[in-house]
UniProtKB/TrEMBL annotation:
NCBIfam families: rpoN_sigma. Residues 80-249 form the RNA polymerase sigma factor 54 core-binding domain. The gene is rpoN. It comes from the Bacteria. The lineage of its organism: Bacteria, Bacillati, Bacillota, Bacilli, Bacillales. Belongs to the sigma-54 factor family. Pfam families: Sigma54_AID, Sigma54_CBD, Sigma54_DBD. Residues 262-419 form the RNA polymerase sigma factor 54 DNA-binding domain. InterPro entries: RNA_pol_sigma_54, RNA_pol_sigma_54_core-bd, RNA_pol_sigma_54_DNA-bd, RpoN_core-bd_sf. The keyword Cytoplasm does not apply. This is RNA polymerase factor sigma-54. Keywords: DNA-binding, DNA-directed RNA polymerase, Nucleotidyltransferase, Sigma factor, Transcription, Transcription regulation, Transferase.
């Protein structure tokens, strides 16, 4: 066999470091992008960041296609640390061994107000005694070791019928086995219904002991509002600092040695790339959101039941971009709308092919949820009945097993588990 050399020219797509970083920038949420910019300032001496003023945060300029909104940060209000309050109350109420026992028990409580089933080096009798002490300074049920004990601590000692329901009937009640429950407790339907109503007045969570550290802050990346009857959206990016060039470095570049001049030129190119990448990210988000806003108008007015099918490919075709670019742009971003706060990707939903009209999977899930919400609780609908309701009311033809799958996705139990007296 003869051996020979052959030259061949090929075109190949190379993923450069800058291209990889441009993709990452596109995927960043607003908060992640802000942190990235400050990291870039530390790495590149030519970059200077100017944080926005208070007026700019509130009244900052936005793209001509969008409108600004009054608030750019939506947070959950931090609640007081209730564990600390309990410890202070214990100090004012108890002394000696009782105080030590209550303080130890408070420290062991989980964030719902329950204590562990067993405490090391503490006898069961001491543990229960500590729980009884806790009832004097905290909400009823605090310190309980399980749900049953929590509920029993909230009722009167002479309330025999309710005690029996809690001690013997919770599992049957959870499974909606009412005939067995009435037989076991020797109660009529009216008596059981009255007990269940009283049971529902009790709380399964004695108190919330979440500290301020557990509070999560949510900042939407896009805000949609209805203004004068018209939908408008804005990018919630007024908190981002302005990228400026350190002119002193640029002016001194010609006076530096050759090696250092090359370094300054390299950093200047990086500065230009960063500015362009952020602008491309912003324009890409605006272009995608403009299509989403136009396509999903009914959703923004009426909610998930009106969400239409919308694919990444459909949007990519309209804005003349690659499907992967759209996928990366919508990732990790939150959108605040007049009908609630969602992940942006939730507004993209596949079409159910078996429907005569155009319905998204998300809208069908919402329809199933509403049908079950308004069903007769004494005779809850089977999956087959739900399928028939969708067919008659919305002309949506789905198999029973599909309804079963969607119901499980929603976390809704079967009809036998939803039955009420």
């Amino acid at each position: 066999m003869d051996m020979f050399l052959k030259q061949q020219q090929q075109q190949k797509m190379m993923m450069t470091p800058q291209l990889q970083q441009s993709i990452e920038i596109l995927q960043y949420s607003t908060l992640e992008l802000e942190q990235f910019l400050y990291d870039q300032q530390l790495e590149n001496p030519l970059i200077e960041l100017q944080p926005p003023s208070f007026q700019e945060r509130i009244f900052g300029d936005s793209h001509s296609l969008v409108r600004s909104t009054e608030n750019d940060l939506y947070t959950k209000i931090a609640e007081p640390n209730y564990r600390e309050e309990l410890l202070q109350l214990a100090t004012l109420t108890f002394a000696g061994n009782d105080l030590q026992m209550v303080q130890f028990l408070i420290e062991q409580l989980d964030n719902k107000g329950y204590s562990p089933a067993h405490l090391s080096n503490v006898a069961n009798e001491q543990h229960y005694y500590g729980i009884q002490l806790l009832q004097q300074i905290g909400p009823p049920g605090i310190g309980a070791r399980n749900l049953q004990e929590c509920l029993l601590l909230q009722i009167e000692e002479n309330d025999y019928d309710l005690q029996q329901l809690i001690q013997k009937g919770l599992s049957l009640l959870a499974e909606r086995k009412y005939p067995e429950l009435m037989k076991s407790l020797k109660l009529s339907k009216e008596q059981l219904l009255a007990l269940i109503n009283r049971l529902q007045q009790l709380t399964p969570i004695p108190c919330a002991l979440n500290s301020v550290d557990n509070i999560e802050y949510v900042t939407p990346d896009i805000v949609v509002v209805i203004e004068d009857g018209t939908l408008q959206f804005s990018l919630n990016d007024r908190s981002l600092p302005t990228i400026q060039l350190q002119d002193s470095y640029k002016n001194l570049a010609s006076l530096l040695p050759i090696v250092e001049q090359a370094y300054v030129k390299q950093q200047y190119k990086h500065y230009e790339w960063l500015v362009q990448s952020i602008q491309r990210r912003r324009q890409t988000i605006i272009r995608i959101m403009s299509v989403v806003l136009q396509h999903q108008q009914q959703f923004f007015y009426h909610g998930l039941s009106y969400l239409k099918p919308l694919s990444l490919r459909n949007v990519a075709t309209q804005i003349e971009m690659h499907e992967s670019t759209v996928s990366r742009a919508i990732r990790n971003k939150i959108i605040l709308t007049p009908v609630g706060t969602y992940l942006w990707k939730d507004l993209f939903s596949s079409k159910i092919e078996s429907t005569q009209k155009e319905h998204s999977q998300t809208s069908i899930l919402e329809m199933i949820k509403k049908i079950i919400t308004f069903e007769n609780k004494q005779k809850p609908l089977s999956d087959q009945k739900i399928a028939e309701s969708l067919a008659s009311s919305f002309q949506i033809q789905l198999a029973r097993r599909t309804i079963s799958k969607y119901r499980e996705e929603l976390g809704i139990p079967a009809a036998s588990k939803r039955k009420e007296l």
